[in-house]
Amino acid sequence: MRIVEDFPHDVVEEQVRIPLSDGVALSGRVWRPAGSDADPAPAVLEFIPYRQRDLTAVRDSMHHPYVAGHGIAGVRVDLRGSGDSDGVLTGEYLEQELRDAEEVLAWLAGRPWCSGRTGMMGISWGGFNALQVAARRPPGLGAIVTASSSDDRYADDVHYMGGCLLTDNLSWASTMFAYNSCPPDPDVVGDRWRGLWLERLRGSGLWLQDWLHHQRRDGFWRHGSVCEDFSAVECPVLAVSGWADGYSNSVFRLLEGLDVPRKGLVGPWSHKYPHLGQPGPAIGFLQELVAWWDHWLRDADNGAMDGPMLRIWMQDSVPPSTAYTERPGRWVGEPCWPSPRIETARHPLGAYRIHPAGAAPSPPTELTVCSPLSVGQYAGKWCSYNAPPDLPYDQREEDGGSLVFDGAVLAERTEILGRPVAELEVTVDRPDAMIAVRLSDVDPDGRATRISYGLLNLTHRGGHAEPEALVPGRRYRVEVPLNAMAQSLAPGHRLRLALSTSYWPLAWPPPEPVRLTVHPEHSCLVLPVRPDGPAEPPVPVFGEPEAAAPAATTPLEVGRERWAVTRDLIGYESALEVVKDLGVLRLDGIDLEVTRRADERYSWTGGAS
Questions:
Q1: Nearest 5°: CA angle at 184, between 180 and 186?
Q2: Is the N or C terminus of the chain more exposed, i.e. has fewer CB atoms within 10 Å?
Q3: Residues in Cβ contact with 387 at an 8 Å cutoff, skipping those fewer than 6 apart
Q4: For the chain, how far is it from start to end, CA to CA, in angstroms?
Q5: 84: which residues sit within 8 A by CB, 6+ positions away?
C-alpha cells in the first residue's frame, strides 16, 4: 500500500449534523476539496451503521480524504440509531433508512460547496443501500459503486442460501446486537448521550427474531431486492466483489439484469475493499473510484468506461489452505455478461464418475448417502468477512461423508467462468431434506481444494416462496446452482463433485438424518467453460494500491485467531470453535481504546454404531 500525502487539492475535514424532516439529526463527517466553496464539487455518500468516529475511523480516513484530494467530496454518515446519530435502528434496509438516505443526498446537494451532483458508495451494508437508493431514483444521484452486496436479499445474503438457514445469520445477529448496544460519544452529542443510549437499548429489538420469522422468500426479503425490477435503476453502476467473499453472484446478475452503463469487478479478495484486498493481489481501487466519479459526476472524458464490462481474477490451482497471502492467477475480461465466449459443457454423471461432455448416459444405478454432521467442519465461513483464516480446508475428510463423483485427469488447461449447475435426479426418505454440492480441484497428490459450492433446501425445489414437503421415495429432478467462480484447472488435475445431506455448521441441518439416493443416469454437471487463446480481450492494468494516511493509532494488545475442531470418541461429541479477536487499538486522535472479539462454538453429538 502506497500512502499518498500530496494531492491535487488540499482537503478540508468537518464534522456535521444533518437535520431530517422528522426532527432526527444524523452524525456525519465531510472531507471536501478546500477550493469547493468557490468551485463546488460533487459529493459521494457512504451511509452505514458502523460508527464513523471509532469502528470505521481508520478505513474512512484512508479513502474519503483520498477522493476529496482528487476533487470529489467524500461523506461518511452514521445511520439513524447508530454511532452518534439520533434515533433507533431496528433492522436492515428499512423504508425509514432509504428515506433518510434520500434526505441526506438532498441536504448534500444543497450545500454551497456541492455542485448538486451526488453519488453513493459502500461495501456490504453501504453497497446494499447504494443499490436500493439508486432504484428510488432520487434527484441528482449520478452514479453508484456497490461492493460486496446483493441484488437479492433472500438468495445471496448472510441469512439464507438455497433456502437453507445459514449459521452466519446467527453470528450476524449477535454482531448487530453488540453494535446497537454501543452508546454515542459524549464528546459529540454532549449530555444527551445517556438518553440516546437508553433509547437504543430499549428499542432496537431482536433482529434475529424477524429473520427467523421469514424463512421463505416473502415481502420481507423482496423489499430492497433490486432484482424485483432492475429497470428501476437508471444511473451507472460499478459492482465489485471477491471470490472469497459471499457476494460474488450478484455482480453477474447485475451485469445481466441492468440496462444502464455498468462495470463489474471480481478479484481474489474476501469481504474487503479491493485496495485493502486479502487474499491479494490488492489493486489501486481508489484510482478506479476517482476515474469513475470524474466521468459520471464531472463529465470527464477519461476512458473510465473503456475496456471489458467484466474484469475478473482468473484463479490458478492452489493447494487447500485456510489462508492465502496471494492467489496466483491473472486478470481477464469479458466484453459483456452473459458472454458469448462462454461455452456450456454438460457432463453426464455415472457410477462415482463425471463423464466427458457429450458422453452417453450411464446404465441405471442408484447411489446413496446419509452424511454425518461432521461434513462441513472444514467448510470455512459462508463469507470470509475481514480476512482469512476462514477459508475451506482440504476437502478429503469432507468427501468421506459424501457421495463423490470424479472426473478424468485433465490433459490440458481448462478454465471455468460463471455458475456451475448440478442437475440431479434424487429420492429421499424424509419429508424435509437438503443437499450440499461441492466442486473441488483435485491435484495429482490427491489434495482437494474447494472451488465452488451450492446448497438447496429440497422443500424449496420449486421456488423459495412456497416450500413443499417431499414425498419419501418419489423421484425429483432438481437443479442446484453453485456460486459463480473463475478457476483454471491445470493439466494433471481433475474435478470432483461431492454431494452431502448436511453441511454443518455452515448451514443448519434438517430436523432428521436423511438418506439421499441419486440416479446418475439422469444427472449431470453443467460447467461454463471459458476458451483461452489469442482472441482474449485485453484488460487495462490496475495501478498499485494507494490510500490517504490512516488515522493515527497505537496497538495496545495483539489479537488472535482460533479455528479448532475437537472430537470426543467416548461421548461422541464434536465441536468447531472459532475465536476472532482483533486485539485492542487506541485511536490517538480521540484517546479512545477499541476492541472487538467474537467467540463461536458449534457442536454436535454422534452415536455409536
A1: 160
A2: C
A3: 270, 272, 278, 323
A4: 55
A5: 27, 51, 52, 53, 78, 184, 185, 188, 189
Cβ(572)–Cβ(607) below 8 Å: yes
Question: Which helix (H) or strand (E) covers residue 609, if one does?
Answer: none
Low-confidence ranges of the chain (pLDDT < 70): 386-388, 533-534, 607-609
Domain 343-529 superfamily per CATH: Galactose-binding domain-like (2.60.120.260)
* Predicted local confidence at residue 536, as pLDDT: 80
Alpha-carbon torsion (134, 139, 145, 148), positive or negative: negative
Three-state SS for 8-20 is CCCEEEEEEEEEC
2-316+328-337 placed in CATH 3.30.70.580? no
Name the burial class of residue 213, with classes exposed (0-12), middle (13-18) and buried (19+) by CB atoms within 10 angstroms of its CB: exposed
- Is residue 114 within 8 A of residue 205, CB to CB? The reply is no
CA distance 135 to 229: 8
d(CA 311, CA 331): 7
Full 3-state SS string of 191-223: HHHHHHHHHHHHHCCCHHHHHHHCCCCCHHHHC
> For residues 486-516, b (16+ Cβ closer than 10 Å) or e, as one string?
bbbbeeebbbbbbbbbbbbbbbbbbeebbeb
Whole-angstrom distance, CA of residue 61 vs CA of residue 552: 10
Please state, in angstroms and rounded to a whole number, the distance separating the CA atoms of residues 293 and 145: 9
CB 328 within 8 A of CB 315: yes
Buried b (16+ CB within 10 A) or exposed e, 128-157: bbbbbbbbeebebbbbbbbbbbbbbbbbbb
- Which grid cell is 393? 480446508
If we measure between CA atoms, which residue out of 382, 63, 344 comes closest to residue 248? 382
The residues, ordered by sequence, that sit 6+ positions from 105 with a Cβ below 8 Å of its Cβ are 45, 118, 120, 133, 138, 140, 141
Write out the H or E segment, with its range, that includes residue 480: strand 476-481
- The whole-angstrom distance between residue 600's C-alpha and the CA centroid of its chain comes to 20
Q: Hey, what's the cell of 375?
A: 461434513
What's the alpha-carbon Rg for the chain, to the nearest Å?
Answer: 25
Q: What is the per-residue DSSP string for 110-137?
A: TSTTEEEEEEEEEETHHHHHHHHHHTT-
pLDDT value of position 385:
82
Instruction: Give the CA diameter of the chain.
Output: 80
Hey, where are the domains in the chain?
2-316+328-337, 343-529, 553-605
75: left (phi over 0), alpha (psi -120 to 50) or beta: beta
The answer to whether the 2-316+328-337 and 343-529 domains have the same CATH topology is: no
Contact of 42 with 293, CB cutoff 8 Å: yes
- Helix, strand or coil, per DSSP, at residue 603: strand
Nearest CA-CA partner of 330 in 313, 310, 318, 307: 313
